[in-house]
Known about the structure:
Strand order of the largest sheet: 3-4-5-6-9-10-11-12-13-14
Bound molecules: S-adenosyl-L-homocysteine
Number of helices: 11
Strand content: 15-25%
Oligomer: single chain
Amino acid sequence: MKTNIKNMTVKELETFFGNIEEKKFRAKQLFQWLYRGAYSFDEMTDLSKELREKLEKEAFIEQLKIVKIQKSKKDGTRKYLFELSDGNTIESVFMKYKFGNSVCVSSQAGCRMGCSFCASTIGGLNRNLTAAEMADQILSIEKDTGEKIGNIVVMGTGEPFDNYENLSQFIRIINSKEGLNLGMRSITVSTCGLIPKIKEFANDFPQVNLALSLHAPNDKIRNMLMPINNKYNVDELLEVCRGYINKTGRRVTFEYALVKGINDNINHAEELALKLKGMICHVNLIPLNNVLESNLKGTERDDVEKFKNVLEKKGIQVTVRREMGSDIDAACGQLRLRN
Length: 339
Ligand code: SAH
């Protein structure tokens, strides 16, 4: 079987070149080509013809196929539907902000976490993405837009901590100076709360931002929305987040999707504020995107404001997520679902 070279760090490429009896310094050259967006060995003109032919026999360069692009006329947001080599599809989103361009990356084809408001989990988990497939979402989008990406959020389809090994490799690769050179602090990983992995993550990547999908102030509501809460409950999660903050010195972002009539009244806000009291954190309120398959609805704008005000009064840092690409918006994961 051919070697998937986009799955490798520079160090691993050096070993690879050693194994095929080539000079180690070729690793850096090849790696630079990959992350400048080369998709064939023939483009790598500073490698000899013989070496390029050898590489062609031994290795391949991962390339996702663009199936569909939805472009927002309002703010430049683009949603991509990619097809993987085995026919699975995934979504990624390109967003333009004042501070730079951002890509929302998928970590799995499908998801097995079963959150009741999320379209990505409806068909269950098909498989984990490789580091190469995660990295190529960024490269394909840079190529298509002609723009440089400065920020990565792992908030697309899938639970990144359910694919921890490949996620870690992906972070090491995109952080590499010889490649995309994305700073650890420019990367955010969002999880539904797999506690053992949050602890590992604090050790392995103390500078990468952590976002936690909380979505409820107590177990009664969270159990209803997120089955994973039956395994790792709200108090345990918040305890682990406190540990994370102590260890890394970094704040945690709590994502809170406001679901009409479920978790969005003033009492819920007060309960949440009490739970988060004294923590170095930030709450990101997201009016729920309606998902056709579910009868849960997003909270009205006025009620979002009321919820926000309660948190602010209690001294909790809070923002309401800006709706990017609202004109192309099918809820998270719906582009994939419809195809
Ligand atoms: N599995 C990870 C990351 C992917 S989901 C996680 O749970 O964090 C990224 C974010 O989108 C999560 O906060 C998730 O709860 C949220 N989300 C999923 N479906 C949504 C919807 N219909 N409306 C608003 N946010 C949604």
